[in-house]
Amino acid sequence: MDLYEYQAKELFRRHAIPVPPGGVASNPAEARAIAAELATPVVVKAQVKTGGRGKAGGIRPAPGPAAAEEEAARVLGMDIKGHTARSVLVEAATVPFEEYYAAFLVDRAAGGFLAMVSGQGGMDVEEVAATHPEALVRMPVDPLAGVDGRLLAGKAGLPEAAAEVLERLWRAMVAEDALLVEVNPLVCTTDQRIVALDGKVTLDDNAAFRHSWDPPERTGGLEDRARAKGLNYVKLDGAVGVIGNGAGLVMSTLDVVALAGAAPANFLDIGGGASAQVMADGLEIILSDPGVRCVLVNVFGGITACDAVATGIVGALAQLGERGTARPIVVRLDGNNAEAGRRILSDARHPAVRQVHTMDGAAELAARLAAGA
Amino acid sequence: MAIFLTKDSRVLVQGMTGAEGTRHTARMLAAGTDVVAGVTPGKGGQAVDFGERRVPVFGSVAEAVAETGADVSVVFVPPRFTRAAVEEAIEAAVPLCVVITEGVPVHDSIRLRALAAGRTRIIGPNCPGLISPGQSSAGIIPADITGAGRIGLVSKSGTLTYQLMYELRDLGFSTCVGIGGDPVVGTTHIDCLQAFQDDPGTDAIVMIGEIGGDAEERAAAHIAAHVTKPVVAYVAGFTAPEGKTMGHAGAIVSGSSGTAQAKKEALEAVGVSVGRTPAETARLLRSLLRGAAS
Fold it and tell me: What's the longest Cα–Cα distance across chain A?
């Protein structure tokens, strides 16, 4: 889960990492009130989970409350790379004397953590890495020993005052189960204070059980409905709805549908169980997508036998009633007890169901049916 | 022969008295696995009957190892207890610890990796485990798909593992290893490729990857430098959109990195045949074997 900048900064405050004073506003009047309370020139910053806000005009200085209100009105609702700014962060303008870059992240390749620190902050770090690789210090972090802030600051040419902040960022990363903590820029002010002017934090959803995080935002779409039913669903834009068991097999099914010349409408992994209820929930979500013209159910019976899966499909279609008959459903069952499963489906004689016994063949039929052939 | 797991492996199951643990212990026993112990804190002294086999339960891994000589642990405990469970296995110096649990925080996986270095091989988390057909099974891979043979398989995905095992069921496998779909796992494609290369019982290797990270690219470099046995590969996720997690926590394309296309190209660049579908991957392996035989 990615945090908004204002959430990242609240997290930083909890870990004694200095950030400019400020508050979040969802309308211009609130922005004005925050600026009035701060009683200093402010910056109004669009809250969107994407980079490039500055270039898009989503970060605006405002000398006082009236200007803050005006700028907030301009920024709120702004579209930045497909993300709508629904709130703004209004915070005290901070004049940097020097700008740095600091990040801790999960290094998948090494199976560990990596610190990346640079004395050249404020720019796109990928650009720094490409043009001045020597200016970006990359150091693996020993997960058991932690970070030596002084060593890291020294290597990257940051002042000693930054050492403590680097260690606090690392401790925040561990305490909060973050996969990424990035500050760009981390600045040194004219009065020698180290301040995090921006903040990007990604939390590990798998660690939610040991934190009291807010549930993910609702967008009101099919993905929310699927999540509420405990289904692993990703909406795509094609015409072939896909249900399968196991993330890898479902990804593979999408690819095979694409190879057959159609576009998949979604990713939906119903996992190992494939009970009638789970199958019905899955079909219900997929058939709610008006773009779906055909459904492909691709199940390999591994732990769950195909006869149980077939019974689940028959039960699901009974639950769905007429909604289950409007569009063709291609079913491929293979693996454990495939014969028995196929027989259960043929005996049910459901008008929408067509069986194909290979994955490639099933995808081809689904693609043809989606094309209206 | 096989890698990591053989008929002589003595398996203990952490969380054996839970529903999943009991169910899969019964299946492992049916697959011929020598399950010698269960471990559940607070339940030491009990035993669980699996038909004719009575498996003793110990309160700690250390006791189970001392009493039974177990050298493999399979972990079926919920995510919030996984870190402590695996730490116990590492402290007891169990050489192989297979973590089936899905949903383990990445910080825990990284910490465990560091703790295990040089002491314990961790496979997983979020994996189906491994099977050396006809010998032993540590995890949840169905034992009835295929039997013993001379192909090695390494995969991030459970169901794609089963699918390829099924496609090649007439040939059989030395060992199939599901390394797991998390961003950080204990055993990598490279570890398994090297083990298969060194295993006299393995003639050819099937490698299954998916979007996210660059494990497949690094595996390609390793194959070029160190693997002389025939390798075919399959990569899932060509149609995955950027920035979306596709089921597995690690299966995500970030910006332009981690794409299936990049992985396919990296593998093909070192001479690995990459199938467009699981079925085509199986055909590629067959033709490679025919080529090697003639």
Answer: 81
- On chain B, the residues whose CB falls within 8 A of the CB of A269 are 247
Which residues 3-42 on chain B approach chain A with CB closer than 8 angstroms?
A: none
Instruction: For chain B, say whether A273 makes contact (Cβ under 8 Å).
Output: no
* The one catalytic residue among B24, B189, B222, B248: B248
* Chain A residues within 8 A of B31 when measuring between CB atoms: none
Tokens matching residue A27: 């309308």
Size of interface A-B (CB pairs under 8 A): 173
| Tens-digit pLDDT profile for residues B184-196 | 999 999 999 999 9
Measured over the CA atoms of residue A340, residue A359, residue A364 and residue A256, the dihedral's sign is: positive
The number of beta carbons lying within 10 Å of the beta carbon of residue B51 is 8
Return the amino acid letter for B43. K
Q: Which of A252, A275, A270 is nearest to A359 (CA)?
A: A252
Query: A158-203 pLDDT, tens per residue?
Result: 999 999 999 999 999 999 999 999 999 999 999 899 999 999 999 9
Name the minimum distance, in Å, from the CA of A132 to any CA of chain B: 21
Hey, CA dihedral for B101, B107, B108, B111, is it positive or negative?
A: positive
Query: What percentage of chain B's residues is helix, strand, coil (to nearest 5)?
Result: 35, 25, 40
Examine the domain organization and report whether A241 and A347 are in the same domain: yes
Residue A327: which domain range? 222-370
Residues A123 and A203 in one domain: yes
What is the per-residue DSSP string for A104-173? EEEETTTTEEEEEEESS-SS-HHHHHHH-GGGEEEEEEBTTTB--HHHHHHHHT--THHHHHHHHHHHHH
Region of B139 please: left (phi>0), alpha (psi -120 to 50) or beta.
Answer: left
- The residue with tokens 């009974």 is A318
Residue A146: inside a domain: yes
B4: left (phi over 0), alpha (psi -120 to 50) or beta: left
Domain with residue A134: its CATH number is 3.30.470.20
Percent of chain A with pLDDT over 70: 99
Report the residue of chain B nearest A269, measured CA to CA.
B247
CA torsion, ordered A10, A14, A18, A23, to nearest 10 deg: 30
Residue B105, min C-alpha distance to chain A (Å)? 5
At which of A92, A122, A150 does a domain end?
A92
- CATH code of the domain containing A360: 3.40.50.261
The residue among A264, A271, A226 whose CA lies nearest residue A245 is A271
A226 and A364 share one domain: yes
Phi then psi dihedrals of residue A222, to 5 deg: -60, -30
- Respond yes or no: is residue B248 known to be catalytic: yes
Mean pLDDT along residues A335-343: 90
A252/B236 CB distance under 8 A:
yes
Name residues 333-362 of chain A within 8 A of B (Cβ). Answer: 334-336, 358-360
β-strand pairing of A83-84 with A79-80: antiparallel
Report pLDDT digits (tens) over B40-90: 999 999 999 999 899 999 999 999 999 999 999 999 999 999 999 999 999
